[in-house]
Amino acid sequence: MQFGGRRKKNSINPQSELYGQHLQFYGQPPLENISLSEFETFAVERLKLLKTVENLGVSHVKLTDLYISKLEKELKLVYSYRKNDFYGPTEYEKRRKDHISHFILRLAYCQTEDLRRWFIQQEVDLFRFRFNDLDPKQQLEFLHKNNLRYDTISSEEKTHGWPLHCEHIHDLIVFFSSSNCHCILKVPFQDALDLVRLRKVYLKQGYAYIPHQDIVTIVLNDFRTRLSKALALTARSLPAVHSDERLQPLLNHLSHAYVGQDYSIQKNVGKISLDQIDSLSGKSFPLCMRQLHQSLRENHHLRHGGRMQYGLFLKGIGLSLEQALQFWKMEFIRGKVDADKFDKAYAYSIRHMFGKEGKRTDYTPYSCMKVILSNPPSQGDHHGCPFRHSDPELLKQKLQVYKVSPSGINQILELVKGMHYQLACQKYFELTHNIEDSSFSLNHPNQYFLESQKLLGGGKDIKREMDAPQRSQENAASKGSTATQEVAANTSQHLAEMTEDLDSFFQDA
Amino acid sequence: MPSSDYDPASLPDLLPLYYRRLFPFSQYYRWLSYGGVQKNYFQNREFSFTLKDDIYVRYQSFSTQNELEKEMQKMNPYKIDVGAVYSHRPSQHNTVKSGTFQALEKELVFDIDMTDYDDVRSCCSAADICSKCWTLMTIAIHILDRALRDDFGFQHRLWVYSGRRGVHCWVCDEAARKLSVAARSAVTEYLSLVKGGDETVKKVVLTEPIHPFISNSLDVVKEYFTQYALHDQDLMGSKESVEKVLALVPEDARSYLQQEFEKEKKPEKRWKLITTEAKRKQVGNFAHSFYIVLHIRTEGLVVLQSVSLKSTAKKGQYFEKEIMLQYCYPRLDANVSKGVNHLLKSPFSVHPKTGRISVPIDVSELDKFDPFSVPTISLICEELDRPRPGEEKEKLGDGKEKEDEKDAIEKRKIRDYKRTSLAKYIKYFDQFLDGMARSWKAERLRKSDLQKEF
After folding, report:
1. Where are the annotated segments for Disordered (chain B) (predicted)?
2. Is B232 one of the catalytic residues?
3. What ipTM goes with this model?
4. Assuming Cys at both sites, which of A20, A105, A148, B49 could form a disulfide with A143, CB separation 3.0 to 4.6 Å?
């Protein structure tokens, strides 16, 4: 047992050494015992925080003042923020909570690729925010404490001048000058991927030459890699965790909560007929899907990205596998593909979408986040989010064709300029449905469809079905109280309460 | 030189001949085993075959070169794809616990397809290519090869003609094969400048500071621009083409240029008008560079003065560069490069529609490469049967050992491809492999040294 460093009046266990700094890499898992209720509370609080990070990340450019002030507000309430010289019990508590809640969420979010990706993204954003808040000296201290190695340029390189016989000395100088640096770090390019990706760093012979102030990007990269590996490892020990009946329902619910509805539950399979699709595309499809549908009709073809995005959307609105096959085949045949070729080349991938081939994953329709952030369209593609990926001029023309009023178009373009793509789509919804306020927060194309159908008189059926998935979990939970054990009953009661709490949080978001 | 006319219907007859007597199996095996430095590297590699009637089979793997030969000679694949090196033998992937069968390594690959340039070439479209638009591939290879070598430090890059309308690059360095998905994605984005689909008009936007990679790429484009864009593609000629180009120019300059173009019709003069107009907007940067360069030379240090360059980060001041890049810069299919498990057409595979063999391209002679003189399978099969002048007959005496006969068959096979147009491509491939072999030798030595130490 070691008691290091400062002595405090309040009893602090040896573990407090771990919490010497307010920011950490989460290298070591917590080793203490905690109560089940602490377990739940910590987890839910962190999840709310990460959800906030996500929402802010979509509606604001990261690290702008507005973003910072908003995130600050949320963070202060919960976790250790500004480095406090006063290391009192509250500060300790906050750091402990930070530590433990992170590891609990690892358990919930390690299971699938999608969950991992989401979790890593939010944790990285959170970490970036907190790291940036440190002053340079503190940052270096952090790096040293966490054994991140980097080389400054060797003295050899310095004396022989720059090893860079760059033909474009002018550009190189411009490049470095704009960051006013005094010290340059040389790292293998694999350790600076975020900088490489955006061409923010000079590369030579596989090394990136990084001005000191860009070090945060490397640190983030490191954090991301470590977390990714850790999650993979965690996934392997999951079966042991899941065998604990108290934890399993909680963890399951946590991991579903991030997405809210994913529209993979097809309650209304077969309610749409193929000949309705053309008119539905004009009335109830979001712009991205309307565009894809139109492209498909015009070209009798869609590339892979478009087939995935549109195909999964159609699945979400209720097309059955048979209908989907018929739909795509009928259209492709009008083009350059003959029936035979369709069956060989394209039918497989449609069945794959419905989970009937390969590893049988039942793919879920893409959320707005996914459409906006991944797989940008290139030449010949028609997928993506038109508010994000289309040239504003072309977007304007398109909206004119779809008879949106000029003032409406301007409102939309303003939102696009501010990078509020989902809000722009929501505006489009309001304008095309002739209402003032859409009263929902758009984050999924299928949600758009359902809301539209609701409005246009598809009516009560659909509303009930929409609420059903969320309510059903609660019902199951409260029904659980009739089960045998008291303990189980209490847990599920807890769960039901927390469920309501979480759900209402997400609905407000 | 007239190639024998290729008829896809004759593939079933030509393929067996190709795989029996011409396909360079020993070089192929030499490549994919990478010197035996890593155990089971060849055995855990995935191949996929497209057979007659579009039957597609994945997860093919082989234990030895011999097994590969026998299988290919049995199946006579129309197309061969190469995938990743997995954790287990791909042919046994069903017996492995789900989740543990994983793609571990693969070459870093790039696929450049002429159809992705349809919006900027006027001579052809879709699957067609001609000598005029082929220049786009030449430019692409120059730019990417330089970047992969100088910026990323990759030494062993194999460029291959796809057989119809594009080129592939296989980066075979050990570091490249071990790249993660995130790293591949980052490299691909670093190399991507043309962004956007049909809905985007302006696909290249440059801001200050201009990264040296972009300047280096522009240097290449400039070498070819006059001949390729102004002459072959007649960029500044037809009204339609000019309109498209001017759509990429900022509005204030556009009307001025439209006016000038009424008077000036010569393509080169028109282009000069555009570049001059652009340069006018960029004035102000040069004054500073002198001072800085001097500073570096005298000091010899990397400590840079904080020079406050006037931030002229207005959009659209580099429009002449943006135009050149939009019309000429390589367009990559990002999805091909990002995945570790992505399958790509194999070198020396046949293209069923054109009959052309996917041959390696000698980058040192890049400007002379002509896709239309790449040998077709029908040509090389025909060349096989042509007797060469002064060729000695095989002498098989009585009582010859079986060994000798096998040896003779091997020797004959080697002589076989040598008398076809395929020879020079295989020779180039051999040189490529020799280049890598030096590093394999060093690796093997290093590993055996390590093992000797206790």
Report:
1. 388-410
2. no
3. 0.86
4. A148
